[in-house]
Amino acid sequence: MTILFTNIRLVAYVTIFGISAAVLGLAANFAKLFLPNLQHDFTIFSLVVPSLTILVYLLLLQWAQPRLEVTAHFIIGVLWLAMGAWAADIIGYVQCYPLGGESTPTNNGSMSSRTYCYEMKVIEALSWFLFVLLAIYFTIIITLTTRAVVLGRHFAWSEHISQLGWFGELPGYPTEAVYPRPYAGYGGYSQPYPMMQPNVMQNPMGGYVVQQAHGHSVVIQPGVNGQPATISQVPSM
């Protein structure tokens, strides 16, 4: 049931890589035109942020855990927020089209001010877009992981992120065989949850079915210290 989340994560990563590569290309052009004497602070920063983004998310493809991804989304998101704000501070509310006849000095002469303005606007827009995307993904990861913990996967923060289920889906299946849970055998955590108990049957289509006795209420209590959830039935009042 985690195939949907895996595909959404892949689309998000491709988007992050694509935007970072585009900004890195624009920043590299600025570096060729301005470094080391002109606009060096912003130019260097605009080279570092997309380069670091690509490196970090390549590493996350290898070591993908919710706790690592949440940390990376927060740090990288703050960097993109800073770059978007910095670009907005430089270019501000300048209208690019009227700058057609003006020029901006470079190391080897000058370039069209209109072209420079357009490229700065693109960097600003992509920076804001990537910040918003990372903020949304940051929120989704926290929500899905917290939900997985509530459903009994008490070590969801350290499991492979592909174990998370999308909204309305259970975590774990079908990638459980590819990325088994850590801490197997610790406190019974290697048992499927909920642990087989009286009046609890496994559904052949996946999940579990509780046979509720007549006149009783089903009570589900979270496990303690990694133990599976317990299911009991009490007489209704």
Features:
237 residues; mainly alpha; two-stranded antiparallel ribbon; two-stranded antiparallel sheet; 50% helix; 11% strand; transmembrane helix; transmembrane
Helix content: 40-55%
Distance between the termini: 37 Å
User: How are the strands ordered across the major sheet?
Assistant: 1-2
Query: Proportion of β residues?
Result: 5-15%
Number of strands: 6
Number of helix segments? 4
**What would you report as the Rg, rounded to the nearest angstrom?**
25 Å
Transmembrane segments: 12-30, 42-60, 72-94, 128-150
Protein name: MARVEL domain-containing protein
Keywords: Membrane, Transmembrane, Transmembrane helix
Brief summary of the model shown:
This protein has 237 residues and is mainly alpha-helical.
What does the model show?
- The protein has 237 residues and is mainly α.
- It folds into 2 domains: 3-150, no CATH class; 186-237, no CATH class.
- The chain is built from 4 helices and 6 strands; from the N terminus they run αααββαββββ.
- It has a two-stranded antiparallel sheet.
- A hairpin with a 5-residue loop joins β3 and β4 (208-210).
- The longest helix has 38 residues, at 113-150.
- It is elongated.
- The chain crosses the membrane at residues 12-30, 42-60, 72-94, 128-150.
- This is MARVEL domain-containing protein.
- It comes from Serpula lacrymans var. lacrymans (strain S7.3) (Dry rot fungus).
